[in-house]
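#struct-help
A.M.: can someone run this one for me? Single chain, 87 residues.
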Amino acid sequence: MKRMIMMLLVSAAMSAPAVAASVTNKDADTQVLVIVEDGSRAEVALEPGATETICPSGCFLTLPNGDRIALNGAEDVEIKGGGASVK
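D.P.: on it. Structure tokens below:
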């Protein structure tokens, strides 16, 4: 019985949707984003029209124009004209 309950809990946890922010590049040029998450810094090159899923537990996102955005992991960010709109 314990094994059955444990299997149900594990399968429920695996089927729960992951929450993460997504960034879409609506510009005609590749945009390089700087992401700082849990003290780790990474640069991500986002091709025109591409969407990247980032920051499942929150992060800071620095845009090519220098703007810095704090994300909690549930936003949709669109990059257009070098700037961003958060939805």
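A.M.: thanks! The chain has one domain: 18-86.
D.P.: also worth noting: The CA atoms of residues 64 and 82 lie 6 Å apart.
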